Amino acid sequence: MSDQPQFTSIPAVKAAFKAEGDNWFDKGTMEWWHSKIESDLIGGQFFITSEQREPDTERKFSVRKVIRAKAGNLSVDTIGEFHSHETLAQARQALDEVIQNDQQ
To answer: CA dist 74 to 30, 35, 43, 62, Å?
Structure first.
């Protein structure tokens, strides 16, 4: 979609969210979700996160996309189901498929 945002890096995404007053990438939010950003920004919009439900549980991975929501604000959309990938390699493969399908 041409009206969707394009960024050059994860720090640029974080800065844009902060400028809008959104706390998605704030340290406290990331810590509360036990969340880590596991990839660079890909295709100007996509990245991979991992989260743990509890500190002693396995990390699960999700493919994410930065979008402009209908309300006009930036948002992070989960591609597929939250925690749908058991490994980082599986999440990367899924992201490659999403990008390939977007380019067709």
So the answer is: 17, 19, 17, 18
Contacting residues for 55 by C-beta, under 8 A, at least 6 apart: 34
Instruction: Tell me the C-alpha distance between 41 and 10, whole Å.
Output: 6
88 backbone dihedrals φ, ψ, rounded to 5°: -65, -40
Q: Please choose, from the candidates 9, 13, 15, the residue with its C-alpha nearest in 3D space to the C-alpha of residue 67.
A: 13
Contact in structure between 29 and 67 (CB atoms under 8 Å): no
> Does the predicted model carry a pTM greater than 0.85?
yes
Please state, in angstroms and rounded to a whole number, the distance separating the CA atoms of residues 30 and 37.
Answer: 9
pLDDT in tens, 4-55: 889 999 999 999 999 999 999 999 999 998 999 999 999 999 999 999 988 7
Please state, in angstroms and rounded to a whole number, the distance separating the CA atoms of residues 19 and 15: 6
Q: How far is it, in rounded angstroms, from Cα 42 to Cα 10?
A: 9
